[in-house]
Amino acid sequence: MKTISKTILSVCALLFALTATAQDEAPSQTLFANVNVFDGFADELSMNTDVLIEGNHIIEVGQNISASGATVIDGGGRTLTPGLIDMHTHLTFETPAGTEGFNQYDFGGAGAMAAQALRDNLLMKGITSARELAGNSRGIAKLIQEGYLIGPRLYTSGGVLSPTGGHGDWGGPTDTARNLDYGAMVEQSYIIEGRDSVIESSRRNFRNGAHFTKIMAGGGVASRYDPLEIYAATQEEVEAAVEIANDYGTYVAIHAYHDGSYERSLDAGVRSFEHGFLVSEKTVRRMARMDQDIVWSFQCFMSVATFGAYDAMPDFFTHEQKLKGVAVGKGARNAAAMMLEHDVFMIGGSDMFTPAFGPRMKEDITCRTNMVGYPAPHALKMSTGNAGIVLKWSNVLDPYPTYDIGTIRPDAFADILLWDGNPLENIDLILDESKLHLVMKDGKVYKDIM
Amino acid sequence: MIHRIAALAIVLLLAPIMAPAQDGPPSYVLITNINLWDGTSDVLAPGMNVLVENNLVKQISTEPIAVNRSANTMIIDGGGRTLMPGLIEMHTHLMFQFGVPVSRTYDHAAMGAAAYEGMQTYMEMGYTTLRDVGGNSLSIARALAEGRIRGPRVYSSGGPIAGISGHSDLGLLTVDPYESVFQKRGDSNVVTGPDEVTAAVRTILRQGGTHIKVMPGGGVASNFDPLEATTMTEEELRAAVDAAADFGTYVCAHAYTDESVNRFFDAGGRCIEHGFLISEKTVKRMKKIDAVLSLQTYAGYETFKEPEKIPGFSAENIRKGLQVNAGTDQVLRWIAEHDVDTFAGADLWITDMIPLTAQDMVVRKRWFTDVEILKQNTSNAARWLAKSGPKNPYKEGTLGVIEVGAYADMILVEGNPLEDVSVVADYKNNIKVVIKGGKIFKNAL
């Protein structure tokens, strides 16, 4: 922040500094009094509680906290929760046709559309952190982290590693060489072939600001050349991705659906497992035994609701893509039940982008309760407490290393929501923006309709 | 920075008030009880009412206008304030929000995201149309025209065209000018020879450019071009003017000196940016050939008064800044005296400087009347935007005026800017409502 501020001043012709305010004052305190707290983990609210903020983080949670000099916000019995975390976003794919639209707008246009989505679809709706699971939002994430762009905390994989013909190969059918499609040119993806290119792409990604690695280890729905059943990445390629991620102190997330690619990735040391809607109970048991060494990342809305029926799928899908969607929709309910039954450590991420789905991200959370029967506290934990734990797996590359995220306790960032009502009893409440009375991120208020 | 974010957060809250999309029944905005400045007259028309249907002005009347009080109709009581056309800024560079050196360290998407934020600031200030005269904001301009993102109307030139070492050669000393990061993402077009100029012009227009920017003269804040240098040949300039004319649009030129300005005129160009160092003879030529001069009064007259106070400016940058400052006052006197066509372009496009844009109007009072200044920021600017011809993305109505059939781009101002334009510059207190295309962006009533 400091370095950038100086650079800005050296560039512009300002004769006075607009930026040098509020830096030297003592951190101000804010007391949320008389609130019922969901801490991101517990099944029940902690009633009649106070939460004390100093600067950008929480310093005390308890009953009848006295803090002279603090600004007091009387919660009036509202529910206080951590800011929501969406663990599977694609913010640089906001064109009307998603990745099919890469050739319709250039990367600068994609950035402006991302900026609006970051505000409208995430921050202003209470999603104060997001994990970008493919897409070159490295520069955008850095601008947010440095305070120059309004948006949620953004942890990004940067460009996704994908083999030719894999889920991150967004080239046209007539492209004759790899990395010639516009998505690859602007590093939305890296087309990888073999260990060496995995190493090079991983390092390029980390050099320019990625916080972890995402690799396409299996086939996908919304892509052209990859049946769901394929493996896509070799064992060696996945291992290379893990090796380099470990060298940078961070972790690997995979896109995969079936036992084969999940098994390979578990063997290789991958930690975050996206989708997995076609896995067997045997694999689920193995994942459960690994406790919090790994996590299952569930996309409820896109799998169960959207991929539930052929006709419900996006218009821009091809016939083959829609058939794959139907298969995923069937498997998803089954996988979701097994994962819960065996108590696999889990998070949720919407995977919802484009103007059609982006504004509805929070429906991924309610889907867990309404469509597959997860208890509401569990559904919320997947987007708060558990999610915050996984964000911290970026470790050395964590852009927000100072405090915890996704929980309400001392030494957690002041990412706080106030709700008129109790979402643990009525999860649909989170979709009603008039019930979201306050949004605070990093101690700053972005919405206040109390 | 903290204050800036807080201010923008307030704008965010207003976003949901935006009028509904135009698929359904027509939407109406009725503004009653206002004093109207239509963008061209010398006086206010008191006690007027203006009705907007969808994105255009439908009716203007001294009599009350009857509307159905349905969900599709919004009525705003102007309370005797001034309603005038949305402001037009004719010289910005959206893709360089943190200045050139910092822009070099971010990718195109990050700079696009930053541009989005800058555009929201312009809107809050009442600037409903911008002309980007250098930088690849072409896809952003398209997304705006399609209504996919909020912000002003943007007319973009794409990357400016110049020879090696010209003002748009923004690469590092050790990098081939054709390989700079700016060249690669279309923020600049370094060219050699008329054929490359033609190709660059056609590529820009293919990607949605509305006009072309060339840089035949040197610049202040760039490193390879003394102000006195001329970095495009007449042949290259003519290639740009001809290729643009083939698409029915025009070329504007970054130029300071008699040499570079006259060479551009000889090549058929008519729109000059800067021109701070030209002679009275050249000013007279401008009048004769009906050329236009866009002068940056705040930057030239105020900022460059003491360029040594600009952190990071080298001795050479300071020398060039003082040179520009010395020329500003004289050139503006001649422009006013000979009644040369001019419009406003503040050139204050870095994030923290955008809020100073309207100060350019205040500085202009030294040479122009308040009404002249207002026209330079509305109707006269729009006259040149319309010269984009078939490439103009906004052909449905007129801009820069409030008349029946014009785009409903309007601001409601506390006070009378015809008596003192300073009221517009104090946008936080005085710009109460901002409407673009019939959609309410800001309502601080």
From the structure above, extract its key features.
heterodimer, A: 450 residues, alpha/beta, Urease, subunit C, domain 1, TIM Barrel, 2 domains, 5-stranded parallel sheet, 14 helices, globular, B: 445 residues, 8-stranded mixed sheet, 18 strands
Structure, described:
The complex is a heterodimer of chains A (450) and B (445). Chain A has 450 residues and is an alpha/beta fold. Chain A has 2 domains: 2-82 and 404-448, Urease, subunit C, domain 1 (Roll); 84-397, Metal-dependent hydrolases (TIM Barrel), CATH 3.20.20. Chain A is 30% helix and 21% strand. Chain A is built from 14 helices and 18 strands. Chain A has helices at residues 2-11, 107-122, 138-145, 182-185, 195-207, 235-247, 259-268, 281-289, 300-305, 319-341, 354-357, 363-370, 376-381, 385-391; strands at 29-37, 46-54, 57-62, 71-74, 79-82, 84-89, 127-132, 153-156, 160-163, 189-192, 213-216, 252-258, 272-278, 295-298, 346-348, 416-419, 436-441, 444-448. In chain A, strands 1, 2, 3, 4, 5, 16, 17 and 18 form an 8-stranded mixed β-sheet that branches. Chain A has a 5-stranded parallel β-sheet with strand order 11-12-13-14-15. In chain A, strands 6-7-8 form a 3-stranded parallel β-sheet. In chain A, α3 links the parallel β7 and β8. In chain A, α5 (195-207) packs parallel to α6. Chain A is globular, with a radius of gyration of 22 Å. Chain B has 445 residues and is an alpha/beta fold. Chain B folds into 2 domains: 2-86 and 398-443, Roll (Urease, subunit C, domain 1); 96-391, TIM Barrel. Chain B contains 16 helices and 18 strands. In chain B, the strands form 4 sheets. In chain B, strands 1, 2, 3, 4, 5, 16, 17 and 18 form an 8-stranded mixed β-sheet that branches. A 5-stranded parallel β-sheet of chain B has the order 11-12-13-14-15. Chain B has a 3-stranded parallel β-sheet with strand order 6-7-8, with helices on both faces. In chain B, α6 packs parallel to α7. The longest helix of chain B has 23 residues, at 315-337. Chain B is globular, with a radius of gyration of 21 Å. The model of chain B is unreliable at 1-21 (pLDDT under 50). Chains A and B meet through α1, α2, α3 and β18 of A and α1, α2, α3 and α4 of B.
